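Database export, one record per block. Field names are fixed; values are copied verbatim from the stored entry.
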Amino acid sequence: MFSRYTTIKCYQDTKPIKQCLTCWSFDHFSARCTFPPKCHTCAGPHKEDSHVCNECPDTAKAQKGCPHIPICCVNCNGDHLVDNINC
C-alpha cells in the first residue's frame, strides 16, 4: 500500500482445531497430554508405531491400514480414522 510492501494474510473465521497426537482427543496437544496413548488406526491402547497385525508379517503394511484389523475412531467409535474431518 502506498508504494510499500505489505504482508496479506487470509482471514480465518474459526480457530484451528487442536488435536493431541498421543491420545487423539481435542483441545490439547501432545506436549501437555497426561492420558495413555491410543492407536490412530484401531483405537487400541498403544501408539500407532506399535500397531501390529498377527496375520501380516510386514509391520509397515499394518501401520498403513491392514485389512485384518478394523478401523475404529477413538472419539466416536466410528469406522473411520481418528483424524477424519467428518468426525
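Remark 1: The chain has a mean pLDDT of 81.
Remark 2: Residues 59-65 form the longest helix (7 residues).
End of record.
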